[in-house]
Amino acid sequence: MSQTTIFELLGITGISIGVVAYVPQVVHLAREHSSAGVSGRAWAMWLTSSLLIGALALHRHDPVFIGLQASSLTSTAVIVLLTHRYRGMVCETHAHLRTGASDRDGVPGATRSSVND
Ligand SMILES: [Zn+2]
User: Fold this and answer.
1) Structural domain boundaries of the chain?
2) What local confidence, expressed as pLDDT, does residue 73 receive?
3) 14: which of 59, 106, 108, 112 is 20 to 30 A away, CA to CA?
4) What is the pLDDT of residues 46-78, one digit of tens each?
């Protein structure tokens, strides 16, 4: 096995770990409809970052670098969309983070509050 192959395998392993790391956030947003503690602005900045770095990866034709940015771009885009969709909604687990807002829209599994932007 060549040294390049070893480093490519390390990179692919790193990408896989990165993909798995996004899963808990995506699952919580999708299942609980709760964006408590999730900063839509911060994730939008990560999305923008992934787009810009992804452009460099494409320019360099580096498959591992492209794979990393494609996975980051996909994950951050999903998180930004779900955070926007469930903006201000809080699950029962995170209800203690609410700042006095009432359950005004009656959405099952989550309520709206002002814990994030
Ligand atoms: Zn929650």
Assistant:
1) 3-112
2) 96
3) 59
4) 999 999 999 999 999 999 999 999 999 999 999
Rounded CA separation 105/22 (Å) = 29
Q: How far is the CA of 73 from the centre of ligand 1 (A)?
A: 23
What fold does the segment set 3-112 form as a domain? Monooxygenase (1.20.1280)
Which residues, 6 or more positions from 113, have their beta carbon under 8 angstroms from its beta carbon? Answer: 36, 88, 89, 90, 97, 98, 99, 100, 101
- Distance from residue 21's CA to the centre of ligand 1 (Å): 17
pTM above 0.85?
no
CA of 17 to the centre of ligand 1 (A): 23
